[in-house]
Amino acid sequence: MAWETLIDRSQGAPPTRSTPARQLPKRxxxxxxxxxxxxxxxxxxxxxxxxIFAPLLVPHDPAKQYFDGLTLEGFPLPPAAPYWFGTDLxxxxxxxxxxxxxxxxxxxxxxxxxxxxxxxxxxxxxADYFRGWVETVxxxxxxxMTAFPALILAIALAAILRPSLWIVALVIALVNWVWIAxxxxxxxxxxxxxxxxxxxxxxxxxxxxxxxxxxxPHLVSTLLVFGTLGISTTVLLEASLSFLGVGVQPPxxxxxxxxxxxxxxxxxAPWLVIFPGAAILLTSLSFNLLGxxxxxxLDLSERR
Amino acid sequence: MIGYLGxxxxxAVGVMIGVTIVTFLLVFxxxxxxxRMIAGRSATAATVASIRSELGLDRPLPVQYFSYLKNLVQxxxxxxxxxxxxxARLIKSRFLPTLQLAMAGILFELLIGLPxxxxxxxxxxxxxDQAVMxxxxxxxxxxxxxxxLLLIYFLAYLLPVFxxxxxxxxxxxxLPAVTVGLAGGGWYARVxxxxxxxVLRQDYVRTARAKGVLPRRVVAKHVLKNAVLPVVALxxxxxxxxxxxxxxxxxxxxxxxIGQMIWQAIQLVDIPVIMGGVIVTALFVVVGxxxxxxxxxxxxxxxxxx
Amino acid sequence: MGRGRIDPTGEQAPSRRRKPWLALAAASVLAFGTAMAxxxxxxxxxxxxxxSTLDPAIGYDWQNWSIIKSLFDGLMDYVPGTTExxxxxxxxxxxxxxxxxxxxVLRDGVKFHNGRALVAGDVKYTLERTLDPATQSPGQxxxxxxxxxxxxxxxxxxxxxxxVVVDDRTVQFTTTEPDxxxxxxxxxxxxxxxxxxxxxxxxxxxxxxxxxxxxxxxxEWVLGQRIVLERNPDYFEAGLPYLDxxxxxxxxxxxxxxxxxxxxxxxxxxxxxxxxxxxxVMADPTWSKQVSLGEQMQTGYVTINVEMExxxxxxxxxxxxxxxxxxxxxxxxxxxxxxxxxxxxxxxESHDTSYAGYPYDPAAAKALLAEAGYPNGFDTVLYAxxxxxxxxxxxxxxxxxxxxxxxxELRTQAQSTVIEAGGAGEAPLLWSGGMAWIADYPxxxxxxxPILACASNIPGGWNWARYCDESIEARAAHADTLAxxxxxxxxxxxxxxxxxxxxxDAPWIPxxxxxxxxxHSTNVTGPDAIFxxxxxxxxxxxxxxxxx
Lengths: 304, 306, 548
Prior knowledge:
The complex is a heterotrimer. Helix content of chain B is 78%, strand content 0%. By secondary structure, chain B is mainly alpha-helical. Chain B has helices at 2-29, 34-39, 45-55, 61-73, 87-122, 127-141, 144-158, 170-201, 203-210, 215-227, 229-243, 247-253, 258-268, 271-299. Helix content of chain C is 25%, strand content 20%. The relative contact order of chain C is 0.18.
């Protein structure tokens, strides 16, 4: 079949190689020429800056429940001076809370989700690499973890341990890695059998190096997907976990938390959801653009 | 192949045992006493103790576990503490709605995710690509409760096309399934796109293009088949996870799925119902992942299981 | 009721001139005087949560409480929309002079839904079933004063000696000590009469196959979706219920239920008005007419663990009481409550209208803290149930405490976790909202024994403040022996003084008394009070009428 011949021919192509150092200026230039990537970089920097300098940026105390922050009937105020994003259900300044919320949300989105991606990658790779009983055990472990009720784990932890952000990160990592592991496993399953990888094996390149040189680059895109889209879902998951008492406790704001406590007000007080929601969206989008830009500039998935 | 299937079924038993053990342990870690939840506020200590012994909760944990397992093997999932009814009956009443929502949800995920993902990959870097990807992020980032509420408000209340929640006709199923599909579709679109791009970049595809093989045929026959593997993995996972219930969507739309039941059971520490729900979920996780593993070789003949 | 939210009851404050100890056989349940009102039609009620059970011995939440009441009847009941106790299945009753023996004569011609006539033996069976440990009834504890109850529970006796069937229409109860609330306890669901043959035929599933004597009977139950009740044509109250059919739809989100009400698809919002729409509804001249507001027997409070440093010092507890701005908290829940200064809600005769409590005064609170040795405040933990609006109320309390230097870390958790922490005595401060006390029956002792008594200051008990004062305990026990009619004024005064004295020790911060709020469509009607009934919580379904 023509398909096989095509692959046979492609095998002969000599790997293009040069030291990364020499290519750095070229790659930087390529990155800077990519407008989307630069926008992404700026977005990420802005969110970082906001979370670091939150105390300097907030117009109000994010925990202060203003007496004039609610109507007499106890309804939150729509966006207007002096509360530019409006107020929340306790009469607090929403803008200040969104600014402070960047801290928790960024940490959870990047660290917890990053840990999940890493675990998922390692489990997926290990299953493919070792095959045999390791593969069986790891993949069935993912089955167990998928079926197991994380909610109960969260409630149990909330009661046993002092609530903290790190427990949230732990639970998120424990819950989320299965998706990544399954996706990576499936992908490597097909990659691993591809003739060019086998050819590399025949040439005497060790299996680990095969993984690093020939397989990892193919996974960069998938990892990027989970690493960036995962930010959104993780930030929302953090809110559910904190709700159960595992994570940051009120009045510490997080984007997911603000949405969680006010989403049933969406039809009447949309600002309560729109502003933190936009923050989540822009953050994950920025990371995505930045990630894609980096991948293209570094030519990661084409390295062979 | 038959050997492989047999092996997997054996493993499935192992998974079920693993899940039940983990859940059992966790439930008993919960600092909540089911007997006290049943007994209510006016109960004396003696009443609580007698309820505990009626439920068999005063026995050692391993004894409780093995007696549960023994009953389970005989098809007895126990009785709900709160509802005082057979768990199997409670689950049965919610099984069909759960299955319908899971299947329709996955269908919408694929309907939304696949075409847009393919389109974005083929038009990589264009405005179409950017728009699709931004929408994918919107879909994933939007809280399901809000999406559900908006769909109901606009498409059922202001514009009475669909019913205002509830269960019954196929029309009832559309909005909940769309809500599931919008979030999952974002993932599917993103995953499809990146997998497609990867495959498109590979030498054999480049060569095929250079050789004048029609791009559309390449896309349809080879690229798509290879690119779709991660999507199959996601579908496999979704089968299991959705069969465990989609709590928020069920709750917004008043869909009588299993998720609501498990959620309420967790609140009330209704252990037999929690266990029953977890077992059903585990069963479908195993089935879903097995289906995915069986589909891989079909899509990519180079994948073979020994 | 045990768990759950509450949103409930009656616009006009129900009559304070209750004389529950009188056999008011003449006081018909039709006190609202609409005996000639039309019957017919149907109504739909929505709930978010599934109905767990309709077994009167088991059901103990705010949702199934009055559904069960519409399917079953007790010897005693309350005048609709009020807390006034009247005979119900009983035609009349007498109490012996020593207050130990109650003799009830049953109404004639009462039939169960299965067609069999009610006899006195059914009453005895029902109470024994509730007491039987195998039933696992949460109501068991209410009936321990019946002579022989403990022996029966322990298995030492095959029947309860204190319940005697005199003849088919006469049943006699003997208590071991005078129990002033005994008649109220016979009005609880746990004493609503069930037919033995139906319980046994249901083979453990009576909760889904209820057979009672009530105005409605079960027509259809689709698990997880709906319960349909239909009129019991043989009901002993002439002209009741008004509706031919009553449907409960479960699993309906309150926000969606509200939209459906606007559309005319449903008639009563079982969960009340969603918080997001409340101000809008009350501001709307049309909608607000469909809303009923009423008092209920509820107090929301923060328990202060008196066994924990620094709360062992009464000055600290009083300072906390002065630190909380209850008016603002009431505003946060859209004014759906009245600020509280004492333990008993206004519905109780023993509520002290002259008691001022600890007025809001952060400066004085701070001074008192300094006097107690905490000029810079201290760190503590506040537990709360995580479901809205309790998370917000807890945050408001937290912010108020911070103003006087008390840094309370919040733990908002699942209900079972919070109850467990309170029961274990591990919670320094605990906001009771969502688990807060709604009395089971309108007697002040129900606000003492389970939640403030030495007797309930046990591991796993509901006395989360760990409050125990032996002298008050003795006074309370004495007050409860004042069971005779001529002792009632004395009893009411004694309870009033007991609760004032407890507030002197400040084991609680009373925050508010929640109001019941309900909304119904224009298709149904009835007196406001029955849509926010304090006893048939949340709605007295038998009294709901179809609008003409």
